[in-house]
Specification:
The chain is about 25% helix and about 25% strand. It has 8 helices and 15 strands.
């Protein structure tokens, strides 16, 4: 017979832990299902260089800010330590290895059937993440490509690619940071952009780009971009035509990642939108 609880939470990543803390504060009973054997399993799998791309003041979970000793942009290992401490503080005990198979309505309740247990709950919170499953684009001719093709989810560090030609597809936060990692690790790195991208320094006068965007200060970042990285076209990229406030709503930004300095030293260069692949494409493809 299934046990009964107020809320079933599916997933023990940052969102699931945050929900659990709020439920604990509210005095409600709950169960957290987690298919992996550890909390925040996605964070354990991410590439080594990863940092949060927003300042720590805007990135913590409810009730517990990041420690004052943490850097402004928190690295992967400290994010994991923070999440483990957070779970301990609120006595969150996910059911590890209990992957949810079925969620269905059963009278006034929900029936949640996991690999190891079944629960009836009045409410269900889905907190399983939005990027757990890699999505690989369909690129004509990719079957003819003679070298390695990996998704960013498989990338760990630059060591296997030292001295090789590597094409990074996409220049969002992950693409930009991985490209920089490859550059500094000795790979000859190119980036394929589908469209223009705004490139700005991560911090200016002790204010981060995320601070400015949160405050809706639209004029300063655009002016900074023109001053600090005026020559997009020299590196095969271009600045978007739309205004900063329009771009804020629907574009990713390449912020920080020392991209300005490294582009000036020709440690990477841009490439046009990749539409097909053949045997002469760069030695490795990395997708984001």
């Amino acid at each position: 017979m299934a046990e009964h609880t107020d809320v079933a939470v599916i997933g023990a990543g940052p969102a699931g832990l945050a929900v659990g803390a709020c439920l604990r504060k509210a005095g409600l009973n709950f169960v957290i299902f987690e298919r992996a054997q550890k909390l925040a399993s996605s964070w354990h799998r991410h590439y080594e260089r990863l940092h949060l791309h927003t300042v720590k003041q805007l990135s913590s979970l409810p009730y517990v800010p990041f420690p004052a000793t943490y850097p402004r942009y928190v690295p992967k290992n400290l994010v994991i330590a923070y999440l483990e401490s957070y779970a301990s503080n609120f006595d969150l005990q996910p059911r590890f290895g209990d992957a949810v198979r079925i969620v269905r309505r059963d009278g006034n309740d929900w029936l949640i059937e996991g690999a190891l247990s079944s629960v009836r709950a009045r409410h269900v919170v889905i907190a399983s993440g939005f990027n757990a499953e890699p999505v690989m684009p369909s690129i004509p001719g990719i079957e003819k490509f003679r070298s390695k093709v990996i998704h960013s989810a498989q990338y760990v560090n630059a060591e296997p690619f030292a001295g090789q030609d590597v094409l990074v597809i996409g220049m969002g936060n992950t693409g930009a940071e991985v490209a920089l990692d490859l550059c500094e690790g000795g790979a000859r790195t190119s980036i394929s952009l589908r469209d223009g991208v705004h490139i700005v320094p991560r911090e200016l006068l002790r204010h981060s780009d995320s601070d400015r965007r949160n405050a809706r200060d639209q004029s300063a970042p655009f002016a900074v971009e023109r001053k600090t990285f005026p020559g997009h076209s020299r590196f095969g990229s271009r600045r978007p035509l739309e205004a900063w406030d329009q771009a804020t709503e629907r574009r990713h930004f390449a912020t920080g990642c020392e991209f300005v300095q490294n582009s000036g030293h020709r440690r990477w260069h841009g490439a046009k939108n990749l539409r097909r692949s053949d045997q002469d494409t760069a030695g490795n493809l990395h997708n984001r």
